[in-house]
Amino acid sequence: KVDCGILDPRHAKRREQISLDGLWKFSLIDYDGAKKSVQASDYIDIMAVPSSYNDISASENVRDHVGVVQYQRSFVIPSTWGSKRIWLRFGSVCYSAGVYINGELALSHEIGHLPFVGEITSFVKAGDVNQIEVLVNNTLTNDTIPQGDVEILTKQNYNFDFFNYAGIDRPVLLYTTEDTYINDITVQTAIKDTSGIISYDVVDIFDTDGNLLDRYELQFGVRELSWDSTSFKINGKPVYLRGFGRHEDSDIRGKGLDLPLILRDYSLIKWIGANSYRTSHYPYAEEIMDLADSLGIMIIDETPAVDTGADLLRNHKQSITELISRDKNRPSVVMWSAANEPSTGDEASEDYYREVIAHLKTLDTTRPVTIANNVGPSADHSGQFLDILSFNQYNSWYNNEGDFDVIFTKVLTEAEEWHYKYNKPVMITEYGADTLEGYHSLPSFIWSEEYQNELMSRNFEVFDRLRAKGWFVGEMIWNFADFKTRQDFKRVGGNKKGIFTRQRQPKQSAHLMRRRYWSLAAELD
Ligand code: GCB
User: Fold this and answer.
1) How far, in Å, are 366, 372, 391, 524 from residue 229 at the CA level?
2) Is 236 helix (H, G, I), strand (E, B) or coil?
3) Is the separation of the CB atoms in 357 and 365 below 8 Å?
4) Ranges of H-type helices in 382-439
5) DSSP class of residue 506?
6) DSSP 90
7) In the structure, which protein residues have their CB atom closer than 6 angstroms to any atom of ligand 1?
8) Cα-Cα-Cα-Cα dihedral of 185, 190, 195, 199, to 10°?
9) Could you tell me where the beta strands, DSSP code E, fall in 346-455?
10) Which H helix or E strand runs over 298?
């Protein structure tokens, strides 16, 4: 549980740090607790941290493992750390982790994609070699977030459409503090006339003799968000979001943090003229968010609640608490997404989302909240609690294949129904088509590059009509890049709705999108 602040220690200026990234000993653990008896040749018992473990080895046992894996390594604590408090922080472990230091349970956490930290001073020996063991469990059940279920203890089922990557997928850091240290900072900003107003809680801490004990440097931006029934504004100016849904996903490392990949992605985001994206369908690495802050990209920051039913309230609220405590000071985060495609048509979802959104509002009222919905407005129970209404619609893909004429009316009708039902701004968070790069067909045929382009162009026509109505506030295509999914006959090597390939090269559609996003920029920015 996170019962303390989750400030990223990389930005602290008086704390010593030791990275535990690198190569760890690795083994699969069988259900009875014994190590799984796989052939020595079956996998290498070494794992890179950070990375998802699934796609590193040549073994299906590793890729498809369900349950616990063990990571181990040793580390030296300098003798000079003997007088300090010592902390251990994980950027994320998917899905749950038990962390043992010198054989004793020191920390535990569940819910992937979110950082956790704990004090380990009493567990380590300063000036000596220490052992760390992390037991990582990737099992998803009916009350984990996201949900899944396990069939006969060997097969993990889940409904969400991305591979259930697991492991220590973000950096691991040891660091020190004094007895008194900065636990948390909250910065809030506003604009009054032409002045920026900054309110903050704490910056430097000194002891009684005036010695600086802790210093934290926080990057922030001065801006004020506001919204009403027709618009979403930054510093009083209406914003139109143009971007994508994305994934943390790439060859070999899965969801493992990869700085070159992150820079490549931002370079493509700039190239294409987007101003925003949604962290579908979970919180992204802090390194990714830091760059969004400094590059001025707007983020819809999503919880890990994807395709959920209404029976995991406690974990859903916990994920929101942890997400907001991590990202509350980020200027890039302009909206929270409480869930992706939850079952908001069920009657029980009314009380459920009343409580989820009320909880979120106790933590932050400075940003609007949305849900990426695929339940139509007539059945939906969640819109009454939201500030901005978002919907996903896959015309000419999951329905009416080959028929683009349906797009205009269906998108227009659903957007209008959302707006008139709740009197709130509306945006589209997903539309798109799977496309095999290099497959061409004239006239366009499903899966061809021409098909994706035509589907996009037809969507652009209706988005422009909607923009003229004055309450349509954004468009995000699904997806930025192709990504891996579970094995499924509908998915040829994964989900191919990217406008970039998984290797981050453009499909023909990326060039079309570039023309649109830059012309929107010229018109609106
Ligand atoms: C959706 C989901 C997304 C899928 C996408 C698709 O509605 O939100 O996770 O990947 O559709 O391509 O089916």
Assistant:
1) 16, 18, 17, 20
2) coil
3) no
4) 405-422
5) B
6) E
7) 161, 281, 340-341, 374, 392, 430, 478, 495, 497
8) -30
9) 369-373, 389-392, 426-430
10) strand 298-302
- CA dist 484 → 145, 151, 431 (Å): 20, 22, 18
The torsion region of residue 235 among left (phi > 0), alpha (psi -120 to 50) and beta comes to left
- Which one-letter amino acid corresponds to residue 216? Y
Q: What is the 3-state secondary structure (H, E, C) of 161-224?
A: CCCCCCEECCCEEEEEECCCCCCCCCEEEEEECCEEEEEECCCEEECCCCCEEEEECCCCCCCC
Q: Name which of 177, 17, 173, 213 is nearest 84 in CA terms.
A: 177
State the Cα torsion 383-384-388-392 to the nearest 10°. Answer: 0
Tokens standing for residue 458: 């037809």
Task: Name the residue at shortest CA distance from atom 2 of ligand 1.
Answer: 161
pLDDT at 450: 98
CA angle 472, 507, 51 (to 5 degrees): 90
Q: For residue 137, what is the enclosing H or E element?
A: strand 128-137
Q: Which residues of the chain have pLDDT under 50?
A: 1-3
Question: What pLDDT was estimated at residue 373?
Answer: 97
Q: How far is the CA of 146 from the centre of ligand 1 (A)?
A: 14
Residues 399-418 pLDDT 10s: 999 999 999 999 999 999 99
Alpha carbon 145 to chain centroid, angstroms: 13
The predicted-structure confidence for 260-274, as pLDDT tens digits, reads as follows: 999 999 999 999 999
Query: 56-77: b or e for each residue (b if 16 or more CB lie within 10 Å)?
Result: bbebeebbebbbbbbbbbebeb
Distance CA 517, CA 435 (A): 20
Give the whole-angstrom CA distance, residue 219 versus residue 8.
11
- CA torsion sign for 269, 274, 276, 281 is negative
What per-residue confidence (pLDDT) applies to 332? 97
Residues 176/84, Cβ–Cβ less than 8 Å: yes
The one-letter code for the residue type at 415 is: A
Helix axes 259-272, 286-295, angle to 10 degrees: 30
Unique residue bearing structure tokens 């299906």: 60
Question: 70 and 86 in contact (C-beta within 8 Å)?
Answer: no
Say if residues 137 and 96 touch (Cβ distance below 8 Å): yes
- Kindly give the distance from the C-alpha atom of residue 161 to the centroid of ligand 1, in angstroms, as a whole number: 6
Single pTM value for the model: 0.96
Pairing mode, strands 96-101 and 128-137 = antiparallel
Residues 302, 322, 341, 475: which is the catalytic one? Answer: 341
* Joined tokens for residue 241: 């979001």
Please report the atom of ligand 1 found closest to the CA of residue 160. Answer: 9
Summary count for the chain: helices (H), strands (E): 8, 29
Task: Let me know if 449 is a catalytic residue.
Answer: no
CA quadruple 141, 142, 145, 151: dihedral sign: positive
DSSP state of 302: E
